[in-house]
Each structure stands twice: as C-alpha cells, then as structure tokens.
Amino acid sequence: MKLMIGVAFLLALAGSAAAQQEEGIFPFDYRLVELENGFKAYLIKAGAPGQIAYVSMVRTGSRDEVEEGKSGFAHFFEHMMFRGTDKYPDYDGVTSSMGAARNGFTSSDRTVYYLVASSEYLEQIIDLESDRFMNLKYAEPDFRTEAGAVLGEQQQGAMVPGRWLNEKVRETAYDRHTYRHTTIGYEADVRAMPEGYEYSKSFFRRFYRPENVVLVLVGDFEFDEAEELIRQYYTPWEAGYVPPDVTPEPEQTAPRRQTVRYPGRTLPVLSINYKAPAWSATDRLAVATQVLGRVAFGSNSDLYKRLVIEERKVQYLSAGFGLARDPSLVSINTMVVNPRDVRTVEQDIQQTVERFREELVDETLLSDTKSNMKYGFLMGLETAQNVAFAMMTSVVNTGGIEAVNDYYRTLDSITAEDVREAARRYLMENGKTVVTMVQAGR
Amino acid sequence: MKRLALIPACLMALAACEMAPEGTITVREPDSPFIAFNVWVKAGSQNDPAGKEGLAALTANLLSDGSTTEDSYDAILAKLYPMAAGYGYSVDKEMTAFRGRVHKDNLEAYYTLFRNALLNPAFSEEDFERVKTQTLNFLERTRRYGRDEELSKELLFWMAYRGTPYEHPEEGYVQSVRSITLDDVKAFYQQFYVRNNIVVGVAGGYPGGFVQRVRIDFDALPEAEVVPAPAPEAAMPDGIKVLIVEKQTSATAISFGHPISLVRGDDDFFAMMAANSWFGEHRNSFSHLYQVIRESRGMNYGDYSYIEAFPRGYTTQQPPINSARRHHLFEIWIRPISLTAPGNLHERALFATRAAWRELKALVDGGMTDETLEATQEFLHNFTLNYAPTVSRRLAYAVDDAFYGIGGDGFLSSLRPGLAGLTLDQVSAAIKRHLQYENMWVVFITDDAQGMKQKLLTGVPTAITYAGEKSAEHMAEDELIASFPIPVDEEDITIMGINDVFERSGG
C-alpha cells in the first residue's frame, strides 16, 4: 500500500460537494489551541506526508493605516519581518537551510506570512516564527535599505493598468475610510518610508500582538506535540493589541463619475462600483451579494454571453464581489473594444442591474452558482498551503476558521428572493461610482 | 545536517505510474479526488510560418476559448460553470500544452468538453475574431506598456535568437497576427494536431480503463508526417551587444545573458542547477544577486538568474512547466531600478548592471566554495519538493521529461540524488564550461535612451547614494562596482522606440 500514502490525507475530500453539506463543507480534522494571551492556532491535518504549511495571519493590512502619509506601511512592515532577531539574526539563512518556501503578502485587511517546509522542522519553525513575532529587531540603516526594495516593488507594477485604475477608483469612491488607498500605497508615501523608523516600531507594538494574529498550521504532524510546542513558544507573548481607529465611510448620497487618463496605451476600461456590506458568513444578504456578482456579471451570465461572446464589444467582463472586513466596494470592470461603445456598454450593465433589481434569478443558474462556489472551494484544497490559504477569508474577517462551514450553509439556503433583495439593497444609484480609464492624449 | 528518511510526496506519486498506452503519459494517484489533463502537441511558435508569427498561439487560443461542433462557446462555459473547472493552454517555442483539472465527481461531463475542444473544434469566425482582437490588444498595448521587466526578457530572447525559429515571441508580432486568417489556423491545426504528434497526459484519481479510452478518442485524429523544426542555434555575441528601448518611465528594466549548451538531462545539469540556485534562485532571498543588489543595497525588488527559460516569472515562485526547449540562455533578471535615493536613474541602472556582472565574473573566475555548495545542496534538498505539490504540476513535469527524453523515475525523482552527489570540482568545471562574462546580449528599457547610451560608451563610474548610512567596507566595494568595465562599442548599441517593439518581423 505504499503508493497510497502520497494522498492519504486527501481521502476526506473524496466525497461530493453535496454529500459534505450536512456535516459542513470543511473536510479535515482540526484542533483549536487558544492561549490566555488571546493567541489562536488552528491545527489541521491535511496535505502530503512529511510536509507542513505554517501560515501566520495578522488581521492588519492597509485598512489599518489610519495616519496621514502612512499609506503602504503595513506592506512595508511585512518586509521588515524578514530582518531577524537577536536570537535568529539571519532569518533568511535559517529558512534557506530548511529549504523552506517562505514569503509574505499584504492586502487591505491582512498581512500573511507562510512557510512550507518539511515536518521535521516543526519545532524549529515554531521557535523561529514566535520569536520574530515577539522580538523583531532591526537597525535604522537596514530599515532605510528595505524602503528602497519596497519602492522598487511599487515601481515594478505601477503601470499595470488594473493597478493604476484601482488607485483612482478608490480615491473616487471613498471619502474617509482607509480603503481609499491601495495596499502598496501612494508613491509619495512610499518615497517617505525611509524616515519612518520610529513609527515602524510603534506599528509593531500595536498590531503584532497575540490577539491579532492567528496561526493556521496545516500538514503532517501530531496534534499533541504541535499543541505543546505552540503553548511553550507563544505563551510568553504579551497581549496588548491596540485596534486602530478606522473612520467609517459616511453613507454615499449621490452617484459619482470620473474619467482618468492612463499614461500608457489602453483601450477604455469602465469600472462600475457600488458600496457593499462587510463580509459575513451568516448575513444572508452579504452572501447573496456575492452570488449576485456571479449570476449577473460572471462568465455564465447573460451579460457576459452578449458583450464578450456574441457582440464582442468588450475584451473582458469581470465581477469583483469579494467583500471585505468593513463595508467596501463591489466592482464590475470591462474593457471596451471601440471607444465609441463605452456609453452603450455602460447602459447594458445598468440594464442588467435593473433587471436583477426587478426579476428573480433563474433557479438553474442559482443552483449552478452554488455548485460553482462549493466546487471552487473544494478544488482549492489540494495542498497544505492551499488548505491554509482557503481559511484566510474566514480568519481575517472573523478571527477563526469556524465561519467556513457557516458560510457554505448560508450559501446553500440563499434563494432567488435573497439575490433580488441584495441587488435592491446594494446596487443603488446613490452608492454608485463610475470611473472610466482612457488613454492619455485622447 | 538532520534529515528524516521521509519519502517526498511527489516521488511517491511518480512511483505510481502505471503502464500507459503508447502516446500517453500517466501519473496515477488513486486516492486523489482530482483528475488532471495535459495534452502535449509537439508544435510551438518555432513552427509558425514566416509572416504568420503567432499562429501556433492563436490556434491554441481558439481551441481553448472557442466553440466545438457539439457546443457553442457560451454553452461550454455554462457546462463548466457548476464544476468550477476549466481548461487552458500554453504555447512555448517548441510545445503546446492544453491543461485542465476537475473534481472526480464531474469527470465524465468535463472530459467530454475537454476532448471536444481539441478534437472537434468548430473554427467559428466569431470566436476567431474575438481571440484575435484580444491578442492584438495585448501586442499593441499591454505588452508594450504593462510590465517593462517582462518585455525586457522577451527582447533578450529576441536578440539572442535572431535568424532562428526561436526569434519571435510566442504571441507573434503586431503585423503578423493581423495577417493571420481563420484558414491559416485550420491549416496549422491540420498540419500539427495529428495522432502521431500528440501525447495525452492524465493524472490523479482517474478510474481504471479511462486512459485507454482517452487514447482511443485521440487516435481518431488523422496521422500525418510532421517535419521536425531544425535545431535552434543561438549565436554567442562577439562582445557586448546592447538594445536600449526608449519609453517614458521612471524605472529602468534590465535583462542580459548569453546562449548556453545545456538542457535538462545533460551531465552538467545538476551542477549548473546548483550554481545557478546559489547565484540567482528565482524570487528567493537565497539568490546571491538578490543579496548584493536588493538586500544590502535596497536598489530594487529582486535580482535573479536562470539556466532555463522562465517566462512570466513575475507571476509565480515555482519553475515554469511545459516550456521545455532544445536550447536555452543563461539569463540575469534585474527587476526595475528606480530612484530609491537621490541621484541619476541611468547611473543607478548601470550600477546594478555592473554589480550583477561583477558577481558573474567572480563566479566564473572563482567558482563556488565548499560552504556555498553545501548550503545550496541543503537548501535545494527540501526546496525542490515545492516544484510539484499538485497533481497537475507532477503531470506537467512528466510531460517535460518526455520532451527531454528523461527516463526512469523522471526529473523530479532525480533531483535529490543528482544534487546530493555533486562535488565542488564538478560544479566549478561546469561553471567554466557554460558561463562567461565577455560576450553578452543586454537589454535596457528606459527613458532618454541617448543619455543611457552615452553613459555606457564613456564608461564613467556610476556611483550611487543611499537613504541610510553604509559601512566603509560597503562603500569600498561600491567603488569597485561603480567602475566595473562594460566595454561596448557605439555600433553595438541599438536604440528602439517602444512603439516599434515587436511590430513586425525583423523590426
């Protein structure tokens, strides 16, 4: 039976999406370890033998950059987390000697650090990771040097049209909330980062605290051993998380419209955005809003079929209905082949919005959409790392993985009436922001 | 070094290969809930007819994103939708691959769609117009304006392979794609999508007898003689040849390299893999170039080197799959350099170039050391397990093995013993055989190309400043870097405007 071992842990996945719904969609055994300082660790047995994915999720991202001139700082700080401690001054050297794949990434609501490594290094990784989250240390010259690398990162993608447009959309749609700026930050703020050494230390003190970090450990290990090690290494971490004072976005009272000029070459891109609710696993309208994005604007929607395939008026049509920790935007983006068609395409989208505000979605499409979302989740559970990443939305928004099952239960119960109600509630003219990106010089 | 005697998952999976029918590659993992497909068509951009560059890619694109005789494209999307599955394609110089993955619940319905896409394409005019318009938009706009660092790599390959079937980018030129007709696509399909030119790969938890059935389906294709494309031969440049592409930008993209006679499966491959990993492991702080240019100088986002083609490296940290080639370049990728401290952008770009070049000289002249080789072996021992964590990637590696003629348990299984057995003498000798620093193709994408050209020609030192303090030792090394010679003659520097890039063949 030696050949079976390779994927033995995946057996739990073998059933169909429908069969798993009664007991919850999440197919793996797990254990929750909670420490008195507020730290939580989810231990999940999944993936290939001999491997672990060690994923630390900090519930802080560019959303938490409340101070003026500090946009991009959460991402910058992610870079600093690789600069070592007194105990392990050469973080990169230690992880390289393990042959670990490791990295970090930041977005609006989270900063995530991961290592994928051989299980033999479990204790060393727990030691290494707990140590840097408690005792990170770097000198000002190193801090200034790293700021250069961050500016390099900002520059290498600055002209990617989607990113360029995203910055303009946020500025137009938000007045107060920190979602107004992108995660990479404004270029001026990124250029000022070398001067932020003292601020970076306060950033670490406020946000890198046990109550604000959730560990998701997935792979091949023993529950008892892993729990004991986590208790041993993370217990000394002092609580002290200071939640940021994020200003809520005031209610939008009128539609907004803006044309922006991309300084490269592009076909016109139309970005239509609406103010949407915060992510929730149990709020039917929040889940229905995500379903709405797919049924109205997804690759199987009538609108996609017409604009992309039949009339070929647009190069693509995409719906971003992901939702975030705080109320944010849902977006419909499309690239129009002929600049003269921009208004027509916008009208087509508007008619679709109105249709979904009036009519009930086709039951087959609704059912196919639920299937799409469930299989999408299951198809993403192939490796330990992907299992951990599949927990991220739940962890970031709720602080735990329990909401995964809640979310798919709610999804199962969504009706056509819920989808229509979501359209009525959130695809509102007064909450709308339209940004058109055209080529500069035209 | 502490190591447990664990059997890596990917090695075990490969051991599960069953006897497959001729013309198929299988990686059977009976307990996996997923089934992966990888259909390899032995044709790539090298098979594009002159004046029709981009035809292989457009053909694959139309099959992947078009209607079949059974279903319209929107009906295909509707059927794939509840499965959350799809399929896609990649076209490289030598090979085309169609890949897809599905949960076993949906295998039958999915396979019917996947099979029809390849065997029963409708070649509809409407679909053709759609994919061609999308390609032209990419060529005219996205490629030129979206990501200079990827463009600089494509231009490096274009320079190095002038006059060979590898010359043009896979997607083609603006003018050549404009000239492609639906009849061209049909003719290409008839010429290359034939029974004897297609290998079918299946992996994961497929049922018994399934592969045989798939092969029978694909055997319905006609057989035809396929003339192999001539072996690509890239010329070693005589000295240093520079292309400067001018565009309005606040950062400078840099790529340089030279041809190497080395492919996967060669005797020196593992030695060079180790040397390259230490020198420039892709998007990893283990890279020595990364340490020199990014980590200690904060000049950019990263700096790496390659002994195999690595298209779209900005999208992934894993090595590419299904871009197997008979010929490769040694390539250095310096991510865009911007003004991260006061000074002149061209001087910073040249400083970074000089720093990488100087390190290459040190590697060629001095080789690795016992310490660096051992550290590399230790790093790669486990790191290479990340190459193929999914059934799709394990299958793709098996397909690439077939391309390279790697038998036995395959490339993935040979990595650990191949790397562990290396000696310093072997590695140093391999470096001397394959790398050099005097003849080089070089690409810059920057503003004020004339200014850049003058800086290069005069050979003036290009010192840089920092946002923070640096040690005396660091500054002393900077002086050496700033004046490191890059001897280049005026006639060997070409300047091109961004809107001429990849406009037409020979452009």
User: Hey, roughly how much beta strand do the residues of chain B contain?
Assistant: 15-25%
Give the rounded overall mean pLDDT of chain B.
Answer: 94
Quickly count the helices of chain B: 18
Principal-axes shape call of chain A: globular
Please state the second-level CATH architecture of the largest domain in chain B: 2-Layer Sandwich
Total beta strand runs of chain A: 11
Domains of chain A, number: 2
Oligomer: heterodimer
Percent of residues in helices of chain A:
40-55%
Q: What's the CATH class of the largest domain in chain B, please?
A: Alpha Beta
- For the residues shown, what is the average pLDDT of chain A? 93
* Major β-sheet strand ordering of chain A: 1-2-6-3-5-4
Order of strands in the sheet with most strands of chain B: 8-9-7-10-6-11
Which class best fits the helix and strand makeup of chain A? alpha+beta
Main beta sheet of chain B: strand number and arrangement? 6 strands, mixed
Can you tell me the number of structural domains of chain B? 2
Largest interface: A-B, 83 and 90 residues
Radius of gyration of chain A: 23 Å
The CATH class assignment of the largest domain in chain A is: Alpha Beta
CATH superfamily of the largest domain in chain A: Metalloenzyme, LuxS/M16 peptidase-like
Terminal CA distance of chain B reads: 54 Å
